Amino acid sequence: MEEIDTNRLSANRHDEFQNINHQATETANITIKSALLINGGAAVAVLSLLASFISKDKDMSAVVSATAPALLYFAWGVAISVVALALAYFTHYANLIRINHENTKYRTLADWGKRLVHTVAAIFALIPILCFVLGAYQMKEVVTAHKSLSRTETRLSLTALTKFLCQNVLPCKPKSN
Question: Considering the entire predicted model, what is its pTM?
Fold first, then answer.
């Protein structure tokens, strides 16, 4: 019967844990950065839409005030994403403190602090996604309530978009009306 090398097994499990931990950390960072970009891009898109509406009709105060909550959601999404990135840093820093106090009386406090910061960081990583969804829903309400966006204009703009994509981006031939 072959004897199992427990040191080698333990080293393999440690390496596997380190690999999984690294992948989880990278995924979390990508998620937070994506939420930052999505909310920032949505705010820019709303401002572009407002500029387009205002260029067609100067009296758009109702549309501007209706889009304000969506812009606030997107702005909060950006701000909270930045806080989440900072909290991710503090999570790693708390982990280093925990490792440095491995055999001291501060180990329990360091473990507690690391768990607390990690939990808060996870919550702050999810809030920007909620902000984006709420802002998108608010913009849906604004666009569907706006009188100047009739079905005909929407169809025309989709046709123009299709033509643009086919001429400049995609290798396709647009249907002619």
Answer: 0.68
